[in-house]
Amino acid sequence: MSIYREKVIDHYKNPRNFGKLDNPDIEVKESNPLCGDDIELYIKLNTNGSVADVKFSGKGCALSIAAASVLTEIISGKKLKELKRLNKKDIIKALDLPDPGPTRIECLLLPIKALKLGLTEYLKREVSNSKS
Ligand code: FES
Questions:
Q1: Ligand 1 centre and the CA of 130: distance in Å?
Q2: Is 107 an active-site residue?
Q3: Topology of domain 6-127, per CATH?
């Protein structure tokens, strides 16, 4: 059974929130070591810590681009603590996919890894700013 379900093809051909943001609160790039593809995420936060705006860019296979696209839809308006709880199941469900298997899961995980890395870096910065 092909992994390229209708929703994957739709998000790949018409990626949502594709582009960059000026002066984002979170800007992060993550690569898939297996293929060298990468995804960049840009997130602006509201003062209450929820996602005000999000964009992504980068190059990747249909699955990674579709996963990044649907991730931007999922996280719009969400609070930081909700973002921390996101995992691959949320992406698999949103894209209406079967289990992608061990190789393709890395494609699917790429945007989530970028998000988690971006959150970690942002929270570290916040802690060090509050100490200074
Ligand atoms: Fe590179 Fe999927 S083959 S992210």
A1: 38
A2: yes
A3: Sufe protein. Chain: A (3.90.1010)
**Exposure of 56 in the CB half-sphere (CA atoms within 13 A):** 32
- Measured distance CA(2)–CA(84) in Å, rounded: 30
Handedness of CA 46, 50, 81, 19 (dihedral sign): negative
Q: Which of 63, 107, 109, 115 is catalytic?
A: 107
Residue 47 has pLDDT above 60, yes or no: yes
In three-state secondary structure terms, 38 is: strand
Distance between Cα 44 and ligand 1 center (Å): 26
Mean pLDDT computed over 9-15? 96
Q: Catalytic one among 7, 16, 35, 117?
A: 35
pLDDT, mean of residues 17-31: 98
How far does the chain reach from its first CA to its final CA, in angstroms?
55
- Nearest atom within ligand 1 for CA of residue 32: 4
